Amino acid sequence: MHVPPTIAAIVYVVGIIGLFWLDRTPQAQTTKALWIPTAGLAITCSRPISMWLGMSENRLAASVYVEGSPIDAVVLTALLAAALAVVIARKDRVEPIIRENWPILLFFLFAALSILWSDFPFVTFKHWIKGIGDVLMVLVLLTEPSVKDAICRLVTRLGFVLLPLSVLFCKYYPEIGRGRTNSPTLQWRGVTEGKNVLGGVCMVLGIGLLWRFRSAYNDREDPHRRGKLLALGTVLAMTVWLLWKSNSMTSICVLAIAGALMLLSARSVFRRNPVLVQLLVLVMVVGAVYALFIQSTLLENLGRDPTVTGRTEIWKVVLSMPVSRLVGAGYESFWLGSRLQQIWAHFPEMQISEAHNGYIEIFLNLGWIGVLLLASIMVMGYRAVSAAFRRDPDVGGLYLAWLIAAVLRGLTEASFRMLSNSWIFLLLAVMAASLVTVPSEAWKEPDEGDSADNRADDELVLASPLPSWWA
Asked: How far apart are CA 155 and CA 398, in angstroms?
């Protein structure tokens, strides 16, 4: 039975409203400031505003990468200004988070220093500002009255809107939801710019939705439990369908590994023995690396190219480019100028603008120093996540899943770039886990048993730079 696109759109919009109604949690302790990272991530996980307005067609063009779009610049500047205002108003909560995440601070300080040797210093500076914006968005979320409630609402808002709309566009608006990028075959891309981006969105949101589904299933005292399970289960089914249709094998495998890790670590045997979680992580990571880079016959059995869909050839070419091995070409500056033209000459049918490997991407932009700084973020982040898991296995398991997902996805995608959903959720996992080590007097989550007056004192009231209605 053929359904007219307009009727389908109405049904999906009503359905999205129904999802939010079924999953309602009026007692969640968040402020209106949470809409800032929600809006920023909604754009990051879909398409720039200029593309939705039909003002930017070719995102792969070098001129777009260098100059950007004026309307996107205005929107991004407004979001960054709002996020910065909130962070300044919440500086008492922000400062201990920054201290505990000094590897991230060092990474962005070195990225700022790379402006000095970049061939395109102004472009590098603009990209660095965007990278700082990712951190600001995370800081806004982490300074909410309840971090757990904020994460729940963020995942819900993004998942309940972007994923159903992706299904709608793929099925009923193929001129929006499907298209060709670097591949001659038609790709399912939903609200995003390509199938790999759609896969990454399904991966990070799928992990969050699976975590929420497990929590709702275990909370048998919640009067809205059945409605939440129905809403979350519906969107999870859409996630699986989109991954299958997009054929983003990396995201499918990573979501399966990270999801299994999160669910298994929640079992009592792992809760009592955190060492077993470390062994489980080791087995899964080593197994994924072995299957991808050593046992190529496994990829062939899965119907995949043993060269990882031509990625190994891309890696050879970009690694042969003359850039400093120590400090790189400059933060997010490798894919510019003559280097980009030379790479396009090697791949005339693919106007690629990434190395399809997050670690190589960092190496090209920031050299070995950048790679070591990224490694320090992951090592210190894993320690923080492990501490968070020992304290609260439920939310610690979520942070662990997001961290491992980013680490594994970085093997075949440039997942540590500015405005990348994988990178932002990696920062979120690491920085949220570090709250475990923040002194209790500097950080106090509202207690459900507190009186109304005490809760009001615990909740964050934004300072004078923002209007009172925003809190």
From this structure: 12
